[in-house]
Design a protein that fits this description.
By secondary structure, the protein is α+β, with helices and mostly antiparallel strands. The chain has 7 helices and 15 strands.
């Protein structure tokens, strides 16, 4: 900010097509951030008052001063499917310290950097009359994925359940839709971040392994939601069932596979199934070996796209 001004006036003077109405819309959705001065890239050790904070409509008349830092996401990522969902009907359990809900596809679990309104957390809080920013995410599901989601109402529960996931005291079972069959049993891959292109992981099949040893390692190694050792990450899943689906109206053969997730890595099922030659229906980021043309052939999913992946069961031991 190079001159003192009212926030909405500043937005209108600097951004084409923005007036008081559209400026308030950007504030309402959470697409405007401000700090007293340009903050460092890392917030570690930076006092809270010096960090960038998300502005709201209540800040519309905020007086900006010379040197203030302002970040505006003029085209925030939208999740319009959030308005088509019966959110009260999505609630499976509404406990004193937690909520278990069915997450619909095409909606983010948590607010994004440019959209605080159209997320599972925000919509459930609004529908159930819970104070804003009360619900706490404990685990994540991709935007295109649907299924069982546990949210904490208290920090204590969020920590306790997060510890249970990290210690593998919960069993996660997914249903996967593909156009190719996958073998039953344990599948093991190592994954590393892709060096370029869209944010994704690269999965390499581990062919020579001892199944009993791999399962034993999971009991002593952090293989839960909080990552694990540095370097290549070991990814392990168990295919429980794989059934061909019959649909006379569908010329393409499809398979529904029931999978137990034994480790909790980013995009694990998506990447492992693609590496096995069976990308998920709706997959845009991972391809079967030999079927990709490099970074030009892969992309992140759009918010309006579904993925053949459902978090169908969550068992607490």
């Amino acid at each position: 900010v190079h001159a003192s001004a009212r926030l909405l006036d500043f937005l209108a003077s600097r951004i084409d097509g923005v007036d008081d109405v559209s400026g308030k819309e950007l504030l309402d959705i959470g697409a405007v951030w401000m700090a007293p001065a340009a903050p460092p890239r890392s917030t570690r050790g930076v006092p809270r008052g010096e960090r960038a904070r998300r502005l709201t409509v209540k800040d519309a008349a905020l007086a900006l001063e010379v040197g203030n830092y302002l970040r505006v996401h003029v085209s925030p990522k939208r999740f319009p499917a959030a308005y088509d969902v019966d959110w009260r009907g999505c609630v499976l359990v509404n406990g004193a310290e937690f909520i278990v809900a069915h997450k619909p596809a095409r909606v983010s679990v948590v607010p994004t950097v440019d959209n605080v309104r159209e997320s599972c957390l925000a919509m459930l809080e609004r529908e159930l009359g819970i104070e804003r920013d009360t619900l706490k995410p404990i685990h994540r599901l991709d935007v295109g994925t649907e299924g069982v989601l546990v949210l904490g109402k208290t920090s204590a529960f969020a920590k306790e359940f997060g510890d249970m996931l990290a210690k593998r005291e919960c069993t996660k079972v997914y249903r996967v839709l593909t156009t190719r069959e996958v073998p039953l049993g344990i599948h093991v891959h190592d994954c590393v971040p892709a060096p370029s292109g869209p944010r994704r992981m690269l999965f390499e099949l581990v062919e020579n392994y001892n199944e009993a040893e791999e399962i034993a390692k999971l009991r002593i190694r952090d293989a839960g939601e909080r990552g694990g050792e540095s370097g290549p990450q070991r990814c392990v899943l168990r295919v429980l069932e794989c059934a061909r689906m019959t649909d006379a109206a569908n010329d393409e053969c499809q398979y529904e596979t029931r999978v137990e997730l034994l480790t909790g890595r980013t995009h694990q099922i998506r990447g492992q199934f693609a590496a096995l030659g069976a990308p998920l229906v709706g997959e845009t980021l991972y391809r079967a070996p030999g079927e990709s043309n490099g970074d030009d052939d892969v992309r992140m999913q759009n918010p309006d796209e579904r993925l053949g992946l459902q978090a169908s069961e969550l068992h607490v031991h």
